[in-house]
Specification:
Structural class: alpha+beta
Number of domains: 1
Number of strands: 3
Order of helices and strands: EHEEHHHH
Oligomer: single chain
Shape: globular
Amino acid sequence: MKDYVYIDEVPVEEPCAQVSSINYYYLAMIEISTHKNQLIRQWGMPPAGSFFRTHPNPHDAGTFYTLNYIFDDENESHIAYAYLMENCATKWDSIALAEIIEADPHYFELVEESNVIKSPRLNAFIQQVMKIINS
């Protein structure tokens, strides 16, 4: 039977584009493609009949995308590869960094900008919460 493993769009210790940002979809596709390539370098190609897929996830803030590994849970080689996905990279490797820069030389600046809170309503809410915490 088909099953999947959810994989973050980037290595676990790396910042990623935020779903509500202007360039989110563009940046997320760079992240997911690069992350998939890094996982393949790290663990080899997925066994025949299994594959990586970009998966949309609806959310209140908008649709965000993740990388999923799709596999047959009755196939031993698929299961073994799925377990490898639990040991994902924590940081981009040097090849991934080169891929990112080639895809967009401004990627890291755009991701940093996407992580800055720009919503006036959210900023006002955060200020109210901070007043309560500090009182």
